[in-house]
Write a structure and sequence with these properties.
The chain is an alpha/beta fold. The protein is built from ten helices and 13 strands. Strands 1, 4, 5, 6, 7 and 13 form a six-stranded mixed beta sheet that branches. A five-stranded mixed beta sheet has the order 10-9-11-8-12, covered by helices on one side. About 3% of the residues have low confidence.
């Protein structure tokens, strides 16, 4: 009850600001200032469009009835609830995330979006709601045990992903590009690729699903922090998302959702930023 009270108090305060600035009843375009923020548009329309990767279980996937499910989907539902808005989930692949934000196709992306300097040149990213490193997924009969073993091996990678660990630590690896992580896992299973480097939580889930696969090696990169990605220059929207993330991290909501999907507690602490 306290959590909902805080959310509704914030939205009520925002609605008051919008009414005083005359935003209600106008067509607001995203930009600087409360009245032109995507936050104002969402509060006014009571509709929220969020991009999620639905080919990346258990972060995002479709159930047998075609309904979006998963960890990122549940985070999006919490965000919509906090805004008292109807949620529309839009299925994106990794390479479509930034274009979808830049063109206004979605109001935000909650799709395993790691904060990197390169990406921050194009979009803003909220405080982190998830954190993980990367490891390697191989077949159980594979001799690959450390990242340098990937040299001269075929490594599946997702188009639009960072691929930092592979390109820097195994420069002689042969990269084989696929549209999404599910295709990469299938490539390793079928022998089209020797390994797949990805978020360790995702890989642990895949190894649990498929007995012929295993996760090997030490964490390959410093901890990656995933946040909610939004259009650059909309500080009001970013401020709200930072507040939302702080609330779900601080109140245990995020931990409950993570445990629900992964069966374990979050592997890395998420330090409050204020």
């Amino acid at each position: 009850m306290r959590k909902l009270h805080i959310y509704f108090l914030l939205i009520a305060s925002l609605a008051l600001v919008l009414s005083l600035t005359g935003c209600f009843g106008s067509t607001a375009a995203p930009g600087n200032g409360v009245e032109n923020s995507i936050l104002a548009k969402v509060v006014q329309s009571k509709k929220l469009k969020v991009g999620v990767i639905l080919s990346y279980p258990p972060f995002g996937f479709k159930d047998e009835k075609g309904n979006p499910q998963g960890y990122d989907v549940d985070i999006a539902k919490e965000l919509a609830k906090s805004l008292n808005a109807e949620l529309e989930i839009m299925d994106l692949d990794s390479s479509a995330r930034i274009p979808a934000i830049e063109t206004g196709k979605v109001d935000a992306v909650i799709g395993s979006f790691s904060r990197t300097y390169e990406r921050l040149q194009k979009v803003n990213v909220s405080a982190p709601y998830s954190a993980a490193s990367e490891k390697m997924l191989v077949r159980k009969d594979s001799t690959i045990a450390k990242v340098t073993d990937l040299n001269d091996k075929k490594v599946a990678v997702v188009k639009g992903s960072t691929n930092q660990a592979v390109t820097e630590l195994a420069p002689q690896a042969q990269l084989a590009y696929f549209s999404n992580s599910a295709e990469c896992v299938l490539a390793v299973k079928n022998g089209q690729a020797d390994a797949f480097v990805e978020d360790e939580s995702f890989l642990a889930y895949q190894a649990k699903l498929y007995s012929e696969l295993k996760v090997v090696g030490d964490p390959l990169v410093p901890t990656l922090y995933q946040g909610i990605a939004v259009r650059k220059g909309d500080q009001e929207w970013l401020n709200y998302l930072n507040f939302f993330v702080f609330q779900i991290n601080n109140q245990g909501t995020n931990k409950s959702i993570y445990t629900k999907w992964f069966g374990i507690n979050p592997p890395y602490p998420l330090n409050p930023q204020y």
